[in-house]
Amino acid sequence: MFELIAAAVLALAPAETLSRLPVPEANQGVAVDAGFIYAVDNSSIAKYDRATGQKVAAWAGDPATFPHLNSCAVIGAELVCASSNYPSTPMQGSVEIFDPQTMTYLRSVKMTPQPGSLTWVDRRENAWWACFANYDGKGGEAGRDHRFTTLVKYDDKWRVTGVWTFPDSVLDRFKPRSSSGGAWGADGRLYVTGHDLPEVYVLELPRIGSVLKHVATIPVAVEGQAVAFDRGAERVLYGISRAKREVVAMKLPPVGGR
Question: Quick check: pTM over 0.85?
Answer without folding.
Answer: yes
